[in-house]
What we know:
Blueprint: E1 5-9, E2 19-24, E3 30-37, E4 44-48, E5 65-67, E6 70-72, E7 79-81, E8 102-105, E9 108-111, E10 117-121
Antiparallel strand pairs: 1-9, 2-3, 2-10, 3-4, 5-6, 6-7, 8-9
The chain binds FE2/S2 (inorganic) cluster (FES).
FE2/S2 (inorganic) cluster (FES) binds near residues 51, 76, 78 and 92.
Amino acid sequence: MADGTKVADVDEVPESGSYLFTAADAFTTETEIVLVRCDEEPGVEAWPNTCTHERQRFDRGDGAAVRDGEIVCPRHGSMFDVCSGACDNGPAAGTELPDVEIEVESGSVFLTDDNYSFLHAGGIDDDGHGSTSHISL
Ligand code: FES
């Protein structure tokens, strides 16, 4: 059994796009994290939902733009490798998204990073009552 909190089933992570969830960081500040598909094991990676260039969300509630294995920043177009988080282009060139540790077990994704505690699916403002959630139950 993975030593963490279940976030989602792997099947819920779109092949092209992202699965957005909210966690509390080490300072108990709410922060958004995205799950994206990656061709390397374990098939899913997790990254903060914030560009390294400026505070721009990749996933604004309807999935991040993912093209050819890269997350595309909607503000200035820098692209980040879905598997490594590295960026070699645009204004964010030379940066890497900070790692968020997850484990995949029996088709489920678990948040195992000691710096984050899972809060809920969707973005910070998605309290389950709004109409902006892209989560279908
Ligand atoms: S904010 Fe992402 S590339 Fe500028």
